[in-house]
Input
Amino acid sequence: MKSRLLDEHAGERTFVLAYETGDEVMEPLADFVRENDISAARLSGIGACQSVLLGYFNWDASDYEQIPIDEQVEVVSLAGDVAIKDGEPQVHAHVVVAKRDASAHGGHLIAAVVRPTLELIVVDSPSHLRKRFDPQTGLALIAPEL
Output
């Protein structure tokens, strides 16, 4: 993955991240967030992947069901955020991918392997988003009041 700072204005930084064939998405993104001291951000992206692992939150089990897609897909939309959880930045992303027949599948992005490219825009915000543990769901949810 290659990255570049595109703009910095009024405390807000905008980065582009360009992934290449074979790159894993989530771990390098988490590393990038830590290395650039990003604690609150929004992200968006498009591209294509040779495989993705989606998650569907099962309310009854309070856990993500994993849904592997092991074929070439277009990343129609990737959206997410970065917020602080337990003192560390955490990436939370959702994705919609399209198969060859144009059927779409989406959910929580657990993992993905790029082919041929994935382009992400990360906008670092000067204000901090905080997450708090929600005992009802077992999830860390954004708490605007914190």
Summary: The mean pLDDT is 93. The beta strands are 2-9, 12-20, 41-58, 63-69, 73-85, 88-98, 104-124, 131-134, 139-142. Residues 2-127 form a domain with the 60s Ribosomal Protein L30; Chain: A; fold (CATH 3.30.1330.80). DSSP finds one helix and nine strands in the chain.
